[in-house]
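Bug #2210: token dump truncated for DUF5130 family protein?
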Amino acid sequence: MSLSAKDRAALDATIRAAEQACRAEISVYVGPVDGGDTRAFATSLHNTLVAPARSILIMVDPERKALEVVTGGYVRRNLTDDESSLAVEEMSRSFADGDLAGGLTRGIRLLADHARS
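Reproduced locally. Full output below:
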């Protein structure tokens, strides 16, 4: 699974709209995970963002079939772990069907909808 240039452009537009709706920064990483612990890798990526407290990171390693969502403290005031889990389930279903772009789009929208204050 990979993203075409058209997919990346559409995801960028989805991310911008979602950020405006929820007032959080949203980042997506699709690629290989360094090391064995996918959560630790995703958390380390999240910590490098400009404003991690106000950020949501979605990390996908298609080869390992790994998916992680990391949220900052400010975001967690409105976005619960259960709500994040629902987005992960939705994305996972799409990924299992081979739809990386569609899964990311739905997941981003779900996360933004729940993260609104």
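Output looks complete on our side. The chain has one domain: 5-115. Marking as cannot-reproduce; reopen if the truncation happens again.
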